[in-house]
Amino acid sequence: MTAGPAGFVADQPAPAGLDLGPTPHEIVAAGLAACTAQTLRLYAARKGWALGRVEVSVTSSTDAAADPPEHFERTISLDGELDEAQRARLLQIAEACPIHKLLTRGASVGTTLTGPPLPAA
Questions:
Q1: What 3-state DSSP class applies to 63?
Q2: What pLDDT band is residue 20 in, cutting at 50, 70 and 90?
Q3: Does residue 39 sit in helix, strand or coil?
Q4: CA 20/CA 12 separation, integer angstroms
Q5: Is the dihedral of CA 81, 87, 93, 97 positive or negative?
Q6: Cβ-count burial of 58 within 10 angstroms (0-12 exposed, 13-18 middle, 19+ buried)?
Q7: Hey, which of 23, 34, 53, 82 has its CA 20 to 30 A from 6?
Q8: Which residues, 6 or more positions from 40, have their beta carbon under 8 angstroms from its beta carbon?
């Protein structure tokens, strides 16, 4: 599959797949992690804050009895000379990253089917 100019493989662990790439849930989690890190870095740079390393990990889980059943857990590690007020503000900014908003607000999905139909029997 492709996303912009990049191509990559998505798969499932064995026995359902060949475990050749991340699962679709892992790709969504990675998107949230990347968006969070980029948003924090851009915000800190705009403010002139001494933000060093930004590390974001995201895991996902499903609980059919929960509402909503899908849950993403995000852990953010920040290095740099940041005071508590700056760290608190960056935590707020993480909640405003575009992918976080997409996941918490929801989105509509349109689908188009292409390719020739099978010949009539």
A1: coil
A2: confident
A3: helix
A4: 8
A5: positive
A6: buried
A7: 53
A8: 51, 54, 76, 78, 90, 93, 94, 97
Q: Quick one: pLDDT band at residue 52, thresholds 50, 70, 90?
A: very high
Task: Using the structure block, give the residue that is written with the tokens 């996902």.
Answer: 60
Round to whole Å and give the CA distance between 32 and 27.
9
Tokens 């899908």 found at: 70
Average of pLDDT values for 72-85?
97
Dihedral through CA 74, CA 80, CA 84, CA 89, nearest 10?
Answer: -50
Q: From start to end of the chain, where are the E strands?
A: 2-3, 6-7, 50-62, 70-81
Which fold does the domain 17-105 belong to in CATH? GMP Synthetase; Chain A, domain 3 (3.30.300)
